[in-house]
Structures are given as structure tokens and as C-alpha cells.
Design a protein that fits this description.
The structure holds 3 protein chains of 3 kinds. Chain A is of the alpha/beta class. Chain A has 13 helices and 14 strands. Chain A has 2 domains: about 180 residues, Rossmann fold (3-Layer(aba) Sandwich), CATH 3.40.50.2300; about 140 residues, Response regulator (Rossmann fold), CATH 3.40.50. The longest helix of chain A is centred in the first third of the chain and has 21 residues. Chain B has one domain: ABC transporter involved in vitamin B12 uptake, BtuC (Orthogonal Bundle), CATH 1.10.3470. In chain B, α5 crosses α6 and α10 packs across α11. Chain C has a domain of about 210 residues. Chain C is built from 13 helices and 4 strands. Classes of the chains: A alpha/beta, B mainly alpha, C mainly alpha. The interface between A and B is large, with 36 and 38 residues.
Chain lengths: ~375, ~300, ~325
């Protein structure tokens, strides 16, 4: 055969073979929990942090006996690389796998949003640990739940704290132009205007950018009382550091994307002193029920990140739903999830509203003091 | 505590010049390589990034091995080490990736360069991890207030290193035999080869020098911002290329001027217009310039390819 | 063409078509179908870029921008005006094609390698603009709630939803049509003129080929195809964000065209199938995915620079296909 024909022939054969092989299943009784998050790429540490939390939950659950009698509980982790397209592909993969009874994921709201439609169509339970964009739960999917507060709470809570507690009247808002950052910034500005504070400016910075000195210099000339940054800690660290470098004295506050111990190191403890942040939950270290979890996590994985607790929570709840259902059936799991009440979780008794949002709506306020995050109070949003 | 508009402007100017010096160092590499073999070395931005990472590793090693060294010496050691290593990397890249496909269409070289770019990025990612690497800068954090404008030691270091290296390069290219050979090769490669000039070695040397300069840029970048990420090479590389074209591709003084001008424009644009549109601004400059004056500010110097 | 050759060709293509059509019935796994659909969508993109880079020799590094424009056009029409997909893809193609021409006009005054960078610049400008224009494009949040295609069958309306099979067929048809179009174009006077421009622009213009107009035409056609792909993508995902249309995508599509062989139509599709499914095939080696991608590009360029099916070297007399 000519080389070209042989090539094509081999291609068809291999595609065929792959298709056939894929059809074969295994006969060992397994029940799977899926996990999707950014496991490679620049958010890999956060994704890994979440994965570790999920893994811990799976382990603890398995130690308490079979979730479904006679079935082994297995965790399947997929990488979405923070890309919505890959998130959809991963979602489809999990949805197609009949052993998967629940999915923990994703991290980024821009990924969770399209993926949630896939899970909904497959009647597959999805619990997101930290996707905080409000839009996701407003799509009307009964398969979607989340164990964190949403940005339409975090923004107003921050605004109230800024105006009432910090007595700042002139605020400059920066966001990182992502779904999450822009969304949070908009919520904050809405509330600030309601409270009649002055929003001196609102600018975006591209993620991955490093030089904010021009922007900060401009802000210095405007002299606001406070700068709020809605984004992630790599950019935040640079903002804080460069703010100190140019001698900008406005106070600095950020959203939950900053709540990572690495922030303080990157920004240098000296520059980060006195920075405030809001978080989508309370201080894990202050909750007595969480002490065991923190100890277990740190002994196995090292220093705990910001997201692992939520992932652990989400995974534990999902496993509980499967346990209650008792059979390997997605609809049964969904029903069990819907009727779940007062789950004794890390953050207290967990309940969910009809949209799937967690009813534990604590927004925590932290500040940086002596190189550590220190809890200040639980915020209110009205 | 406010500042006057004049002070604001001068401050933005200062910032812009700092950024511009780093762009200039990297732009030189692009322009030199393009000058000799008419290739946009897409991987050059990654060489910059590798240089940054190597300098950080060297810093850790040097600080541990010889504690208490004056910071200028530490800086020199890290800088020279990174430059040497990246110089070798540049030669390796040329030999392994570009030389074998010299005869192929230009598109292939571009694809190879892009593939190389991905390769380098991910090798670094696998070695150092995907998160930002924290860089404890050896340069002391000292600020001076000069008439309301803040100037830091780091900025001074960047200006002096940048200026020094560019001057050195200028001397090399203009006044030495090697420099003459480089200029000749850039002008007409075939003729040089026929005349017995070791063209292969010249090209390799060009790569080495360009890469070394980029490495220095990388080190300064890393110490200035305090964090580096394997992703940094892409955008900085692209802007440096813009700077090279801005000054006139193949034109060495042009790359220096282009770098400074781009840094200034970017800084002023971000400060006065919008930080959000900063990159659009940079690209728009490129496009407009190419349309109105494609030879760049100082005129390009490339071999004529009929 | 001789009857024997023609018959063999028809047989070959019929078998291929049959295999493609029957595949979902043999293996209905939605995940596999989805991977194949994505790869085929890349194939559509590769075919479009092939017109620009492969046939005409215009080095374009900003192709993702047209993909984005097509996606956003349909997305906005769907959300703001409730426009159904079967109508919406037409303006997507048109707008993207127009942008192709419009961006081409200034760019084509610039030579060779500069052109590549200018197109890269345009690509980035489009992406960042889409991210920044909150009020029109939804900014970084992108567009949510884009309507999926709805097919009117005798049994009632069938919404494609998030099922894999309907999109598979849709993309198959679109890709086949684009391939057919490419073949027709490449064999026509326009196509031959494009190839002439690629091989030797100076000679072509001396021979009376309207170089500028044809280059713009290539960019327009290529852009339009990307627009269609964008509309399909938006309809399939239901939600689109600007970060899906970055430089890496432009590079990947370019790599597919080059891997397949410049100018080769089947090469573009096969290159796309191979590289497009690579991320999923390498799922076990996530960490190494991009590394392998980069390495394979270098190796391919080294060992077989003309690509898999690249017959087009200087002096080749073979027709394109």
C-alpha cells in the first residue's frame, strides 16, 4: 500500500481499537468520587490543596466502613488547567463514567459555570468548594451545591467593614479582570455607593502582570483612604510590596483570593502589616470542630492552604449523601443530598438553600499582624 | 500626602526608565539574532526567564556558601553565573534546534522556536514548580526622596547595569574583530562564509551574547519584583521584541532606544491612561509604528533578501 | 481523471464518511465523542488557517481572534436577540470574515516576519478588548446562557443541550463542507493564484496576479471559517470567556497546519485530529502535557519539516488535496 494509505488505515484501526477497548468495563465493585480542579498551571498549588482536602475526606470516610456495602471508594482526580474548555471535557468524562456518584469541583468560577450544565444533564451531584460567583447557583440546577459563601455577600460585607469599621470614605478598587475578581469588585462598589462612600477609581490589572508601580503612583496622587483588591494573592503580594516601595500610605484590603500564607512572604511581612482581607468562611483555626482536621491535614501534607477545608467539607458531605442513598444510583444520591439537614461539618451545621448555596454565610475578616493572619471578626452584610 | 503633577510625571518617567532598561537588555538579544540569521527567536523570552530562575538559585547557593558577602559582590556573582549559563543555553539552542533547519522555510523555524518556548517553560515549571518563586533580593531596600520622587537602590542598580552592559556591547560590536565579523555576517552571510569567516561560530557567539544579556535582564527583573514565574518569559519577551522592532530590527543602538522608549510609553500609558489597557497600548504602538515607519526609529539593519 | 482512479477515490471517501457517521453508534461514549468533536473543531479551524498560511503563505499568529469574534457574535445575538443558532452562524462568519479583511488591510503593508508579529498583536488586542469591554461582552465573566442549537424534527424540537452526539455530527458536517470548499478553492483560479503568491510573490505580481486583493480574500475566507467554528463552539459550550481565545490557541492551530503540511487539506484535518486530541490522550501525564507538545513540535520540524502530507515544495507539480 502507498505510505499515505497505510497511514490512514492504521489510524482508522487504532481509533476503532480504542473505541472497543473503552467499551470494556471492569467487574470490581467500585464507587467513585470525581474531583476537578487546576492541577497544573499557575493555580496548581490551590488545586492541589483542594485535592488533598478531598483525598483526606475520602480516606476518613473509607476508614469508617464501606460507603456503599461491598463497594470500594475511589477518588478520580482530573485537571482542568483553569480552562473552561478543558473543564467541560473533564466534566463530560466524569459524567460518562457510570461509577462516579459525585463530583467535587471546580475551583474557578469560569470553569464551574459551563461544567455545571454537564453535571446537571447527567444528573450528577456537584459540590463546589470555593467557586463564589453568584451566577452559578442561579442557573436553576438542582445538581449544584457549594460550601462557601458567594461574592454577593463578600462584597457588601467588605463594604460595610470598610465604611463602618475602618472609617474609610474614599476607596480605590482594583480587580484582576477575572470572573471572580470583577464580580467581587462590582458587588463591593455597588454597596459602597449605597453607603455613600466615594469610589475614587476602579481599574483592572491583567493577571500575571508584575509592574503596578505606574498604577500605584497614580493612586498615590489621588490619595484614597483605602485600596481594595479583588483578585488572587500573587498580584496582591506585588501590589502590597510596591505600595510600600513608593511610600503609598493608603490602607489596603483584599478578598478571599489573598487568603494564603504565601501572600505575606511574597509581599514581605513588613509591607503586609496591617493589610485586611475578607474570607468566604470563618477562621478554620478558631473552630474547635476543625482542629482535628487541621492536625490531620498538616501531619500528612504540610502547611494547610486556604481551600482544603472547603474541599474536605464538600467531599465529606458528598460521601454522606452517597452513604445515605445506599445504592449506586445518581438520582438517589441527589435525593439524599436534597434532604440532608444539619450536617455536622467543619464550619458548623451545614444546610443549603434551594439554590444550592450554603446557609453558613460567615464572612471572616482577617488582618496581617507580625507576619501572620489574625482573625478580627465575623462580618455582617446588612 | 499628595504629589504635584510634575512630580507625578517625573515619577512615572523614572518607573518607565527602569522597566525600559530591562526591555532593552532583552531586546538586544532579539535584534542581534535577527540581524544574523533573520529569525525571530521566540524562545528568547524563555531564556530571560531561565536566567531569572538561575540567578535566584545562585543567590541561594552563594548566600549559603559564603555568608556575609557584600551585596554588590553577591549580585555580581549571581549575574555572571546566570549570564554564563544562559550563554551556553543560547549556544545549545542554536546548535540543537535552529542550525539543523537553517535551510527550511522560515515558518518551520518559527514553529520550532515556539515549541522550544513551550519546552523551556515547562522544564522550568517541572523543576521549580508552578507557583511564583519568592526571591529574597540581596539589594537593600533603601529609598531616597529626590524632590518628591522616590528612587530606590534597586532602580539605580538596574540603570547602571543596563547602561554598562549596553556600552560594553557597543564597544564590542564597534571596536573589536569579533564585532566586525558579527556586523559583516549580519550584512551578508554568504559572502562572509565565502571569505572564510567562521560563520557558524559567529552565529553561535551572537546567540551566546544575546542570551547572556537576557539573563542579566532576568536577574534584575527577579530581584526588582521579588517574584518570578515560569510564565513571565512570554509577555516580557513579546514586549522586548516590540522594543526591538520599535528601534529597528537588527539595529543594536535601536534596540536600546526601543527598549527605553517602550518602557516609558508603557509606564506613562499605565499611569495616565489605564492599567487595564496597558498591553493593548503596547501592541497598538507596535502596529501603528510598523504601519507608519516599519524601519523603526533608527532604521533597520538586515541583510537584503532578494 | 481516469475512471479507475475516480472510483477508488469515491470508494475511499465513502468509506471514510460511513465510518465517521457510524462511529457514535458503535461507541456512544459521550466523553470520547466530545474529545473527537473538539479535535474536529480544531480541524475546522486548521482548514481556515490553511487557506491563509498554507495556500497563500501569509504567516498569521492571531487566528484565535477570529474564532473569538465568531463565538461572541453568535453569543451576543443569542443572548440579546434570541437568535437561533441556525441563523446565528451566518453573521458570525460574516463578521469574522470582515475582521479578517479589515485587519488584513493595514497588516499586509508590512513584510514577512513583521506581519506575523502584527497579527499576533491584533490577536492579543482583540482578546484584551473583549476582556475589558464589560458592558458589551460581559468582560472577564464572558457570556453565559448562550442557546444551544435546536433541531426541528417531526417528533418535536430537539435541543442539542449538552449531549455529545449532535455536536459531533454538526462539526463533522461543517468540517466536511469546509474541506470541500478548500478543495474547490485550491483547484480554482483563485487557489492557484494563492499558491503562486506563496511560492514567489514577486513573480506572481509580475505575472499580473492581484496580490493584495487575493491576500485579503484569503484572510477573509479564513476568518469566516473561524467565525463558523466560533459560533459552533459558543453554542456547544453555552458559556464563553475571553481566556479561551488566547495566543496559545493561535499557536496550536498553526502547529496543526504545519504538522499536516502547508497547503494540504487532509493534512490540516489530520494534524488537528492528532494535536487536538493530544491534551486528552495525555491526561495521565498532565504535568508533562505541554512539555511533550513543545518537544514534538521541535522533533517534527527537525525530522519531517514538510509535515505529514506536505507535497508543496518549490517545483512540485502535484495538485492540492
Amino acid at each position: 500500500m502507498a505510505a499515505r494509505h497505510r497511514h490512514r488505515f492504521l489510524q482508522v484501526i487504532s481509533l476503532f481499537a480504542a473505541a472497543l477497548l473503552a467499551g470494556c468495563g471492569r467487574s470490581e465493585p467500585i464507587v467513585k468520587i470525581g474531583f476537578v480542579g487546576p492541577l497544573t498551571g499557575d493555580q496548581a498549588p490551590q488545586g492541589e490543596d483542594m485535592l488533598n482536602g478531598t483525598e483526606l475526606a475520602v480516606q476518613h470516610a473509607a476508614a469508617q466502613g464501606d460507603v456503599i456495602t461491598g463497594h470500594r471508594l475511589v477518588l478520580v482526580a482530573l485537571d482542568d488547567q483553569r480552562s473552561p474548555t478543558q473543564a467541560v471535557a473533564a466534566a463530560k468524562k466524569l459524567a460518562a463514567d457510570r461509577d462516579v456518584m459525585a463530583v467535587i469541583g471546580h475551583l474557578n468560577s469560569s470553569c464551574t459555570l459551563p461544567a455545571s450544565a454537564i453535571y446537571h444533564q447527567a444528573r450528577l451531584l456537584e459540590i463546589s468548594p470555593v467557586s463564589s460567583n453568584p451566577q452559578i447557583s442561579r442557573q436553576g440546577f438542582d445538581t449544584f451545591y457549594r460550601t462557601c459563601a458567594t461574592d454577593d455577600l463578600q462584597g457588601p460585607a467588605a463594604a460595610l467593614f470598610i465604611v463602618r469599621d475602618m472609617q474609610a470614605q474614599r476607596v480605590f478598587v482594583i480587580d484582576d479582570m477575572t470572573t471572580y475578581g470583577r464580580g467581587l469588585a462590582n458587588e463591593l462598589i455597588k454597596k459602597l455607593k449605597e453607603l455613600q462612600a466615594e469610589v475614587v477609581g476602579h481599574e483592572g490589572i491583567p493577571q500575571g502582570d508584575k509592574d503596578f508601580v505606574p498604577l500605584l503612583t497614580k493612586i498615590k496622587s489621588l490619595n484614597p483612604d483605602l485600596i481594595y483588591f479583588a483578585g488572587m494573592f500573587p498580584e496582591a503580594a506585588l501590589l502590597i510590596k510596591q505600595r510600600a516601595e513608593i511610600g503609598l500610605e493608603s490602607k489596603f484590603m483584599g478578598g478571599d483570593g489573598l487568603f494564603d500564607p504565601v501572600l505575606i512572604g511574597l509581599a514581605t511581612p513588613k509591607a503586609a502589616e496591617g493589610v485586611y482581607i475578607t474570607t468566604i468562611g470563618s477562621d478554620i483555626h478558631r473552630i474547635p470542630t476543625a482542629k482535628q482536621f487541621v492536625a490531620a491535614y498538616e501531619s500528612r501534607y504540610g502547611p494547610i492552604g486556604a481551600y482544603s477545608a472547603y474541599a474536605y467539607e464538600a467531599a465529606s458531605i458528598a460521601i454522606q449523601a452517597i452513604r445515605t442513598a445506599g445504592v449506586k444510583d445518581r438520582s438517589a444520591v441527589l435525593t439524599a443530598m436534597k434532604t440532608m439537614k444539619d450536617y455536622p461539618g467543619l464550619f458548623g451545621l451545614q444546610n443549603f438553600d434551594e439554590k444550592g448555596d450554603s446557609l453558613i454565610r460567615d464572612i471572616g475578616i482577617f488582618t496581617v499582624k507580625d507576619g501572620q493572619f489574625v482573625f478580627v471578626k465575623t462580618a455582617t452584610w446588612e | 500626602m499628595g504629589i504635584t503633577p510634575l512630580q507625578l510625571f517625573l515619577q512615572q518617567l523614572t518607573n518607565g526608565l527602569t522597566l525600559g532598561s530591562i526591555y532593552a537588555l532583552i531586546a538586544l538579544g532579539y535584534t542581534m539574532i535577527y540581524g544574523v540569521i533573520q529569525l525571530i527567536n521566540f524562545a528568547h523570552g524563555e531564556v530571560f526567564m531561565v536566567g531569572a530562575y538561575l540567578a535566584c538559585s545562585l543567590l541561594i547557593v552563594v548566600s549559603a556558601a559564603i555568608p556575609g558577602l557584600p551585596w554588590v559582590v553577591t549580585l555580581l556573582l549571581c549575574g555572571l553565573g546566570a549570564m554564563a549559563a544562559c550563554g551556553l543555553l543560547g549556544i545549545a539552542i542554536e546548535r540543537a534546534a535552529y542550525r539543523p533547519i537553517r535551510q527550511a522555510p522560515r515558518l518551520n523555524a518559527l514553529i520550532t522556536a515556539i515549541g522550544l518556548s513551550f519546552l523551556l517553560q515547562n522544564v522550568i515549571m517541572l523543576i521549580y514548580g508552578a507557583t511564583d518563586l519568592q526571591v529574597p533580593s540581596p539589594v537593600p531596600m533603601v529609598r531616597w526622596n529626590v524632590g518628591g520622587i522616590t528612587v530606590t537602590v534597586m532602580q539605580l542598580v538596574i540603570w547602571t547595569s543596563g547602561a554598562g552592559l549596553m556600552l560594553g556591547l557597543h564597544v564590542l560590536v564597534m571596536s573589536t574583530r569579533l564585532g566586525k565579523a558579527m556586523r559583516a555576517t549580519a550584512q551578508d552571510l554568504t559572502a562572509c562564509a565565502l571569505l572564510g569567516i567562521p560563520v557558524g561560530r559567529i552565529i553561535a557567539t551572537t546567540f551566546a551574547i544575546g542570551s547572556a544579556l537576557a539573563a542579566m535582564g532576568g536577574m534584575l527583573f527577579a530581584f526588582h519584583y521579588g517574584t518570578i514565574n515560569f510564565h513571565d518569559g512570554y509577555l516580557v519577551g513579546l514586549k522586548a521584541f516590540t522594543a526591538a522592532v520599535l528601534g529597528g530590527i537588527g539595529n543594536i543602538p535601536g534596540a536600546m532606544v526601543g527598549g527605553l522608549v517602550l518602557g516609558l510609553l508603557e509606564g506613562l500609558g499605565a499611569g495616565y491612561l489605564s492599567a487595564q489597557w496597558k498591553n493593548v497600548f503596547a501592541f497598538a504602538i507596535l502596529v501603528v509604528l510598523l504601519l507608519c515607519k516599519p524601519t523603526g526609529l533608527l532604521g533597520e539593519r538586515v541583510a537584503d533578501r532578494a | 481523471m481516469q475512471p479507475a482512479v475516480l472510483n477508488r477515490r469515491i470508494l475511499k471517501w465513502s468509506l471514510g464518511a460511513a465510518a465517521a457517521l457510524l462511529l457514535p453508534l458503535i461507541n456512544p461514549n459521550p466523553y470520547h465523542l466530545d474529545v473527537l468533536t473538539t479535535a474536529l473543531l480544531y480541524g475546522l479551524l486548521a482548514l481556515g488557517l490553511n487557506l491563509i498560511v498554507g495556500l497563500t503563505g501569509v504567516l498569521h499568529l492571531g487566528y484565535a481572534a477570529f474564532f473569538a469574534i465568531g463565538a461572541y457574535t453568535y453569543g451576543l445575538l443569542s443572548i440579546r436577540l434570541g437568535c437561533p443558532f441556525w441563523l446565528g452562524w451566518i453573521p458570525s462568519a460574516a463578521v469574522a470574515g470582515l475582521f479578517g479583511v479589515a485587519l488584513g488591510v493595514p497588516a499586509l503593508r508590512v513584510r514577512g516576519d513583521y506581519l506575523a508579529i502584527v497579527t499576533l498583536g491584533f490577536g492579543e488586542i482583540v482578546r484584551i478588548t473583549l476582556t475589558n469591554l464589560d458592558r458589551f461582552t460581559g468582560g472577564p465573566n464572558g457570556l453565559v446562557g448562550i442557546a444551544h442549537p435546536v433541531l426541528w424534527t417531526p417528533r418535536g424540537a430537539m435541543d442539542f443541550g449538552v449531549a455529545s452526539m449532535p455536536y459531533y455530527y454538526l462539526v463533522c458536517v461543517a468540517t466536511a463542507l469546509a474541506a470541500g470548499l478548500s478543495v474547490r478553492l485550491s483547484r480554482s483560479r483563485i487557489g492557484r493564484a494563492w499558491i503562486a503568491i506563496r511560492e514567489d510573490e514577486l513573480a506572481a505580481s509580475c505575472a499580473g496576479v492581484p496580490v493584495l486583493e487575493l491576500k485579503l480574500a484569503a484572510q477573509g475566507c479564513g476568518g469566516a471559517i473561524a467565525g463558523v467554528a466560533g459560533a459552533i463552539f459558543a453554542a456547544k459550550q453555552g458559556a464563553i470567556t475571553p481566556d479561551s481565545f488566547d495566543f496559545i490557541l493561535s499557536v496550536m492551530v498553526l502547529a496543526m497546519v504545519v504538522l499536516g503540511g502547508l497547503g494540504s487539506i487532509r493534512g490540516a484535518v489530520i494534524g488537528a485530529l492528532l494535536l487536538g486530541s493530544l491534551p486528552e490522550l495525555l491526561r495521565g501525564f498532565e504535568q508533562y502535557r505541554m512539555l511533550i507538545f513543545g518537544l514534538s513540535m521541535i522533533i517534527v520540524m527537525r525530522l519531517r519539516p514538510q509535515g505529514l502530507f506536505g507535497g508543496f515544495q518549490r517545483g512540485s507539480r502535484n495538485a492540492a488535496a
